[in-house]
Amino acid sequence: MMLDLRLYMLQRLSALVMAPFVLVHLGVMIYAIQGGLSAAEILGRTQGSLGWFLFYGLFVLAAGLHAAIGLRVILHEWTGLCGRALTGATWAIGAALIFLGGRAVLAVTWGGA
Amino acid sequence: MPDAQATLSVTVSRGGYDSRQRQIFAVPAHENQTVLDVVSWIQQSLDPTLSYRFACRVGMCGSCAMTVNGVPRWTCRTHVKKVLDGDRLEIGPLRNLPVIKDLAVDMEPFFDKWVAAEGRHHPTRGRAEPIAPIDPLDAQRQTANAGIECINCSVCYAACDTVAANADYLGPAALQRAWTLLNDAKDGNRQGILDAVSGSGGCHNCHSMGSCTAYCPNELDPMSAIAGLKRETARTFFKRRG
């Protein structure tokens, strides 16, 4: 019911996936704000780009899984939530994060253009 | 330093699991005195109904562990002057285990988890076969040796905040035992041990807070043993699925 080996591995692997994404994300941010920053400039880079769609799409997926598993542990240890309620909460948190993140990714890569 | 006339103000946690009270006793202070001496003096001189547990008095049996001024300790090996707060001493039962009465806790959940972690010997040979030779300098043997002085006193289990928050967690002592057996060439159930520590209450719940290692009276290192189990289960994860 709590953190077994499969969830542990999923959280470690999602962290492994996220590590380079975080570095690239921060690196591009620092690079891109040189000489000012505008929404048009960002959208010009991301809209219609399959590369950025895959980059942030995978990032959101990994972050959603990683955070849901971590919050599951905190919920169990701090509130005593367990069983189906805990499983439900884990899925709800993961789904909400992936939905919100996915919407944002679609908006900047697919939308407009 | 307390002299022979001075007294200690000793607060003892009393009662069964459903009703707890604190009772304060005045106990003569001595230059050389352990916390177990204080508890025994109260029981022998002031209140014969005080319940507590001890056996060897020399740090071998692991039965006298209690909470002393908020810290889990062997009371037989704890000198009063080392833990005294002014003239005050507060003594309670171990945390994370059901209280039977006063200072005695029910150790059953602790030992049940020891068994659930496969913390028992799984023989590789029968009685009639010759004993397998073991090289004492072998690295794996030394890893096993690091944990064999555990005497099941439950101090680490009482110190563990993860046990406090998650009743299913097997705890540091049982997991350290599993790690010791995993590194023992004479143990024949590696896979069984790895499976036993990979379940919902297994080693992956440990947050490496380190209270077990900080408070172990034998100066063992259960936190590193649990880290070893995490490494080994992760290393064999895909192999086992394939």
Keywords:
heterodimer, A: 113 residues, mainly alpha, 4 helices, B: 242 residues, alpha+beta, Ubiquitin-like (UB roll), Fumarate Reductase Iron-sulfur Protein, Chain B, domain 2, five-stranded mixed sheet, two-stranded antiparallel sheet, 11 helices, 15% strand, elongated
Question: So how many helices of chain A?
Answer: 4
Low-confidence stretches of chain B: none
Shape of chain B: elongated
Secondary structure tally, helices of chain B:
11
Q: How far is it from the N-terminal to the C-terminal residue of chain A, by CA?
A: 46 Å
* Beta strand count of chain B: 7
Describe this structure in words.
The complex is a heterodimer of chains A (113) and B (242). With 113 residues, chain A is an all-alpha fold. Helices cover 82% and strands 0% of the residues of chain A. Chain A has a domain at 46-113. The longest helix of chain A is centred in the middle third of the chain and has 30 residues, at 50-79. The mean pLDDT of chain A is 92. Chain B is α+β, with helices and mostly antiparallel strands. Chain B folds into two domains: 2-105, Beta-grasp domain (Ubiquitin-like (UB roll), Roll); 108-241, Alpha-helical ferredoxin (Fumarate Reductase Iron-sulfur Protein, Chain B, domain 2), CATH 1.10.1060. In chain B, 35% of the residues lie in helices and 15% in strands. The model of chain B has no long low-confidence stretch (mean pLDDT 95). The chains are: A mainly alpha (113), B alpha+beta (242). The A-B interface holds A 1-5, 7-9, 12, 73, 76-78 and B 162, 165-166, 168-169, 198-202, 204-205, 230, 233-234, 237.
